[in-house]
Specification:
It is built from twelve helices and ten strands. It is an alpha/beta fold. Helix 7 runs parallel beside helix 8. The structure holds 1,3-dihydroxyacetonephosphate. The site of 1,3-dihydroxyacetonephosphate (13P) has 16 residues, from strand 10 and helix 10.
């Protein structure tokens, strides 16, 4: 069932677990994540970066595919279709295209401009029943051309943005997109604690979920994180399984070159990774 992310995140925060937001790239990715969610009886968020939206030929294609797939697969768990790190224009386009949730990432603007643009988009999204995420203190690393310096968010600025009525807040706490370097300092839990206090009641979002150790994930959830984004880990699982299939020469056996066979190991690998994350985040059985 396609819904916005508001109720699923408020429930997660109240009950002490997090909903996974997994990025989609194509039909296989979408089907793998939806199937994993249904089999785990877990709510799920499908994240779409602007780059992936373009790759899939546009937001209307994505919205139509997800809407139809939820129906055709008989998915009964709550599913939100969410724009990930949207620009001001991209956010408006996804709202028009039928997304049920959006993220406006204004973290690279001066705070006054981030506040003004977020406020405008909150009004627009809410007038159509769409949930909205905003960001303060950019996430480090690079994702689909969106690069951040990995700042730790200021709690007062978080409060300014949270007070605009957003449904979830992404606040940088030393997390980065992609693989973590060996010399990574870990998450800044003092900063998270301050942000939690300043924005009491607000479901917080942890980006860069790939490679964060289990204990840090659990601690983040105990400090108010209700949405955790994972992208790179599914890409790595897919690539590894596909490489193995080809290296074993399976594409050359019988009709092993049939795309439905060639992409099957990668599909299963994404599904397994998503299920593992849902278990770790505590969302299994919460749909
Ligand atoms: P990872 O690619 O590090 O898992 O980050 C995903 C993310 O935060 C999407 O916004």
């Amino acid at each position: 069932m396609l819904v916005n992310a508001k109720d699923m995140l408020n429930k997660a925060k109240a009950e002490g677990y997090a909903v996974g937001a997994f990025n989609i790239n194509n039909l296989e990715w979408t089907k793998a994540i939806l199937t994993a969610a249904q089999e785990s009886a877990s709510p799920v968020i499908l994240g779409v970066s602007e780059g992936a939206g373009k790759y899939m030929t546009g937001y209307k294609t994505v919205a139509a595919m997800v809407k139809a797939m939820v129906e055709e697969l008989g998915i009964t768990v709550p599913v939100a279709l969410h724009l990930d790190h949207g620009s001001y224009e991209g956010t408006k386009r996804c709202i028009e295209a039928g997304f049920t949730s959006v993220m406006f990432d204004g973290s690279h603007y001066p705070i006054e401009e981030n506040v003004a643009k977020t406020a405008e988009l909150v009004e627009l999204a809410h007038s159509l029943g769409i949930s909205i995420e905003a960001e303060v203190g950019s996430i480090g690393g690079e994702e689909d051309g969106v690069a951040g310096r990995g700042e730790v968010a200021d709690a007062q600025q978080c409060k300014m943005i949270a007070d605009l009525g957003i449904d979830m807040l992404a606040a940088g706490i030393g997390n980065i997109h992609g693989k973590y370097p060996a010399n990574w300092h870990g998450l800044d839990f003092d900063a998270l604690e301050k942000i939690k206090q300043a924005t009491e009641g607000m479901p917080l979002v942890l980006h860069g979920g790939t490679g964060i150790p289990r204990d840090m994930i659990k601690k983040s959830i105990s400090l108010g994180v209700a949405k955790i984004n994972v992208n790179t880990e599914c890409q790595l699982s897919f690539a590894e399984a596909t490489r193995k299939y080809i290296e074993e020469g399976k594409d050359l056996q019988g009709k092993g070159y049939d795309p439905r066979k060639l992409l099957a190991p990668g599909f299963e690998a994404i599904k397994a990774t998503v299920k593992e994350k849902m278990e770790l985040f505590g969302s299994v059985g919460k749909a």
